[in-house]
Amino acid sequence: MNKAILLIGGNLGDRTGHLREAVEQIDKQVGRVEKQSSLYETAAWGVAGQPDYLNQALLVATEMDARTLLHTVLAIEHTIGRIRRQKWGARVIDIDIIFFNDAVINEPDLKIPHPQMQFRQFVLVPLMEILPDWEHPVLHQSVSTLLNNCTDQLPASKYTGIS
């Protein structure tokens, strides 16, 4: 059984509803969601002037290989209503593969571990909640250490349901 660590997020429409739907679809189509973080809210990263994002980290047990997982999560994004218009642009849902076991994959359309995860609090803070000791297979540092060394100025705050 493979262990995939996913980060889901979105900043358009019913943010909590879209994340809930993504978790349900991942559990049905990908594999059992073993752990899920709280929801975290952060300002948009990369493109200013967007609504704030909600993000959540998931640990998923799956029999899929990494490439099949990628195609499946892209299909789930499409089903929920994702339309790709602009890099780092606003979106209904985004599902990123952060880690896949201890794999290191560097292909044009599939990079694992996620190449920017160590620079982003919105990834590290939810991961810290569910997998603080998970070790990055390239940097050989735990999620906890990566978060302690992160210089991202956009804090990720636990979402209380009040915006």
TrEMBL record:
Coiled coil feature spans: none
SUPFAM superfamilies cross-referenced by the UniProt entry: 6-hydroxymethyl-7,8-dihydropterin pyrophosphokinase, HPPK
EC assignment: 2.7.6.3
Keywords noted in UniProt: ATP-binding, Folate biosynthesis, Kinase, Nucleotide-binding, Transferase
Pathway the protein contributes to: Cofactor biosynthesis; tetrahydrofolate biosynthesis; 2-amino-4-hydroxy-6-hydroxymethyl-7,8-dihydropteridine diphosphate from 7,8-dihydroneopterin triphosphate: step 4/4
Record domain 7,8-dihydro-6-hydroxymethylpterin-pyrophosphokinase: where: 87-98
NCBIfam families, sorted: folK
Family: Belongs to the HPPK family.
Protein name (Swiss-Prot/TrEMBL): 2-amino-4-hydroxy-6-hydroxymethyldihydropteridine pyrophosphokinase
Gene: folK
